């Protein structure tokens, strides 16, 4: 009960009197309690539990049989959740234009005391549920777009529409937020499905590519094996007759089989030189094949630096003498031994020295200069066994190399100019082998050159003096 009083003053001077009023507010208190319960109960729910809790609380608070939360599609109305005679029902789709919800969404709010008389006799809520009265509010997004409705229905006139309006408005914004959140989650699920589908497609494509790669690798390995076998067989088949040719040529030139005249010796010398060139070419091809197959290995030992240089120079002395090219070697006396593969290092030095003689004109000069340098002044990484690098530099006064052609030098089967193939014999394999030998020793090859003045090729290695 609510009590109130008012004081009444009298004009004739008599004492004032009071009027008291007692008001029964039980219904209002009950309604406020119901609304508070509704707000607290629904607010505690979220996600999939929100809409079922909402329609149940609204139905109980307003004492109606039916509550719907709908979402407008293109030409249909999706009932997200409904309360029908005490039961939560799953979502369904009905026609938009035959439902009073369409009017609600259009107008923002809609009250219909008699659905049959108002033209909704064919509506599913009238035909299947027997609903008579209706009240609903539109669900509006933050941008003002109406996306659905929240409505109540009953088989008798709905009592206290203002109260129903107040309760539904309390939850309209929350319903809108939940619908938008649901749509966002739905879009996210669709995006995830698309991403999963793309990942699956790419995974399958990658698996197929890997299978194809495995097949290709197997075929490549087989082809490499066949190539190695072919080269091994061919090297034997080619070397056997070449050895006979070279041996007989040397024997004839040394007058082992009798005296020869000058013309015959010149012809035999040409045969011998051509045979040796062919043998060198075969050996280079085999070395490149070993490099590509990973079978090019080193056998290191302690080698005298001076001995290594002198033995390398001895191979090209005759060729240099014919061109009147002066040879000079500079090996400091304090340089003793170095741990390298003697055979491979001589092969690398002879290759560089032969190139120097080949590209140096008559009367030129070639210098093999060996020196030590602190390892941090080179491009070598720090090596624990040595603080210094040893440099074998071969400088000549030859034709030189242009800067744009230096990068081509170490590519197999490549010469910097096709005219060189005709003017200077060679396969273009030598420098590839030199580079590989240097790198296998933990070093590298550097080049400096100037056209018309000459070139300097340097093999830079860690200076290691003792075997581990």
TrEMBL record:
Entry's EC annotation: 2.7.13.3
Domain of life assignment: Bacteria
SUPFAM superfamilies cross-referenced by the UniProt entry: ATPase domain of HSP90 chaperone/DNA topoisomerase II/histidine kinase, GAF domain-like, Homodimeric domain of signal transducing histidine kinase
Molecular function as annotated in GO: phosphorelay sensor kinase activity
The PAC domain, residue ranges: 1-37
Catalyzed reactions: ATP + protein L-histidine = ADP + protein N-phospho-L-histidine
Keywords recorded for this protein, A-Z: Coiled coil, Kinase, Phosphoprotein, Transferase, Two-component regulatory system
Domain Histidine kinase, chain residue ranges per copy: 233-465
Membrane-spanning segments: none
Coiled-coil features, chain-numbered ranges: 185-212
Annotated Pfam families: HATPase_c, HisKA
Entry-linked InterPro entries: HATPase_C_sf (IPR036890), HATPase_dom (IPR003594), His_kinase_dom (IPR005467), HisK_dim/P_dom (IPR003661), HisK_dim/P_sf (IPR036097), PAS-assoc_C (IPR000700), Sensor_HK_Regulatory (IPR050736), Sig_transdc_His_kin-like_C (IPR004358)
CDD domains per UniProt: HATPase_EvgS-ArcB-TorS-like, HisKA
Gene3D superfamilies linked: 1.10.287.130, Histidine kinase-like ATPase, C-terminal domain (3.30.565.10)
Family: In the N-terminal section; belongs to the phytochrome family.
Protein name, UniProt field: Circadian input-output histidine kinase CikA
Organism field: Pseudanabaena cinerea FACHB-1277
């Amino acid at each position: 009960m609510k009590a109130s009083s008012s004081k009444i003053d009298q004009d004739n001077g008599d004492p004032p009197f009071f009027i008291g009023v007692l008001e029964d507010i039980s219904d209002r208190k009950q309604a406020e309690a119901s609304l508070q319960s509704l707000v607290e109960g629904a607010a505690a729910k979220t996600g999939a539990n929100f809409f079922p809790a909402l329609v149940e609380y609204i139905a109980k608070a307003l004492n109606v049989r039916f509550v719907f939360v709908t979402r407008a599609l293109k030409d249909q109305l999706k009932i997200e959740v409904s309360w029908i005679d005490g039961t939560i029902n799953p979502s369904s789709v009905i026609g938009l234009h035959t439902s009073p919800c369409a009017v609600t969404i259009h107008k923002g709010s809609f009250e219909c005391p008699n659905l049959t008389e108002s033209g909704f006799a064919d509506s599913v809520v009238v035909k299947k549920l027997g609903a008579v009265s209706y009240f609903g509010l539109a669900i509006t997004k933050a941008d003002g777009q109406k996306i659905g409705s929240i409505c109540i229905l009953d088989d008798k006139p709905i009592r206290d529409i203002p109260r129903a309006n107040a309760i539904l408005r309390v939850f309209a914004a929350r319903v809108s937020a939940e619908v938008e959140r649901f749509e966002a989650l739905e879009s996210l699920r669709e995006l995830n499905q698309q991403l999963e589908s793309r990942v699956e497609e790419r995974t399958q494509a990658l698996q197929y590519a890997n299978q194809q790669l495995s097949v290709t690798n197997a075929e490549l390995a087989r082809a490499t094996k066949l190539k190695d076998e072919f080269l091994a067989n061919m090297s034997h088949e080619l070397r056997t007759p070449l050895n006979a040719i070279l041996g007989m040529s040397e024997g004839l030139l040394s007058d082992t089989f009798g005296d020869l005249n000058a013309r015959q010796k010149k012809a035999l010398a040409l045969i011998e030189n051509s045979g040796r060139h062919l043998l060198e070419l075969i050996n280079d091809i085999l070395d490149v094949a070993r490099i590509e197959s990973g079978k090019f290995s080193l056998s290191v030992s302690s080698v005298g630096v001076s001995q290594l240089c002198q033995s390398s120079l001895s191979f090209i002395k005759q060729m240099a003498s014919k061109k009147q090219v002066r040879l000079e070697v500079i090996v400091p006396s304090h340089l003793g031994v170095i741990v390298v593969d003697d055979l491979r290092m001589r092969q690398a030095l002879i290759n560089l020295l032969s190139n120097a003689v080949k590209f140096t004109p008559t009367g030129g000069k070639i210098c093999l200069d060996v020196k030590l340098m602190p390892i941090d002044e080179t491009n070598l990484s720090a090596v624990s066994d040595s603080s210094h690098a040893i440099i074998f530099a071969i400088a000549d006064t030859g034709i030189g190399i242009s800067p744009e052609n230096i990068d081509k030098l170490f590519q197999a089967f490549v010469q910097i100019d096709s005219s060189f193939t005709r003017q200077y014999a060679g396969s273009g394999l030598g420098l590839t082998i030199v580079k590989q030998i240097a790198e296998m020793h933990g070093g590298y090859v550097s080049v400096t050159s100037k056209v018309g003045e000459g070139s300097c090729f340097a093999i830079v290695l860690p200076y290691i003096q003792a075997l581990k």
